[in-house]
# Entry
Amino acid sequence: MIATFFLLALLQIKVPDAAQFVGQPQGRPLAGAQLEQQTMAISHELRCPVCQGLAIGDSPSIMASNMKAQVRELLERGYTEEQILSYFEKSYGQFVLLKPKFQGVNALVWILPVAVLAIGFVLVVSKAKKLEVEPVHAAAEEEPADDPYLARVREMVEKP
Amino acid sequence: MNRTVLIIGLIIVAAIVVVLFAGLGKDPQHIDSPLVGKPAPPFALKAVNTGETIDLESLRGKPVIVNFWATWCVPCYEEHPTLVANARQLPNVQFVGVVFNDTEDKINHFLAERGSAYPTLLDTNGKTAIAYGVGGVPETYFINAAGTIVAKFEGPMNTEILQENLAKAMR
# Structure
């Protein structure tokens, strides 16, 4: 086990580092339960690139577990959530973010549902208002006081 | 009122149809690399087949083809002869294989059986693959003499695809 570790360390002479992409850590290093909790939280914000719409926190793939290990390592080193998401975004693009940014075409994802809901609300309210008003008018129109037809009907009904 | 509702509804449905139709021909696994046009993330890894250390930064001055692959990847078997043949024919281009999620024994067995013409590096914890935004194997990055990524290709390449992308790195 130890020999394997040293062999792997020897083969990994220099690997790309997050500092080259997002600078030095801007938070405080995490450990223990807080580290695990934050690792899981960030892992549910990153998409697994080899899966169909799964977060790396939910995927059993090796690629996802490598990415999750990297998230944990960056948190241990004091990188903030924003820096970590930005690091993955610089490599994979916005594709990797499960929650798209409010930016460019992606802003439509946030704006459209709200706009459609608002339009629907306005339509429902205006329709409901019309429904409330219409019966009153209808009743008023249906029973004019001087309708000769109604007067004749009443007369016939009331006749003993 | 009904006419207005109908028009608004039609506009919304038309917009959704256009968006869905535009996505029909796209590969859901395809990732447009934000690294194209940017400096290639540096790495220095030891080659499992030659024992030498390959430092990407020391390769500046000539085009570099970085091919991510693995012995468990079936399309990589299909692609390997193309890479070996081109590496032998193009001595002024540095080919580098980066294997991830694999073992040294399996890589050496693969190369002994199928031939090898360039250094093959082992990315043990996938950090290099992650920094390059690798979403699957095989995946190939074309780097120009200045160290900038100029193209990325996903999937197995034939000679035509390889040389077409390499031309971008030679400009």
Summary: The beta strands of chain A are 12-14. Residues 25 and 79 of chain A are 4 Å apart (CA to CA).
